Amino acid sequence: MLETHRSLGRTQDRAYPGLSSQMRRAAAAIPTNIAEGCGQPTRREFARFLQIALASAHELDYHLLLAHDLGALAGPHYARLDARTAQVKQMLSALLRRVREKPALEGANGEAARRAG
Description:
Layout: H1 2-7, H2 10-15, H3 17-38, H4 43-69, H5 75-101, H6 111-116
Helix pairs in contact: 3-4, 4-5
């Protein structure tokens, strides 16, 4: 998601400051929620944060499309960021499925079970 930050140059910031801000916020929220979820005591709570990260990825996907449609994000940049966002969504979806399907073998804090699967 660092690529999103790098691709949003000053031109987009001046032309569409709110959109640039929302895109940066959504891009930053994805890894932030994954990290926060890793610190949760149960698989269920971890899954909840993964779901929030996935929702942020969908939000970023929409903002990228809007920026492209408004002419604030050039075609090649949009195509690359859109493809990367799609990859992130696929990975998050697969991880979320795995976390939800794995039998709960949680100890006191759930850490060992999460790391094992």
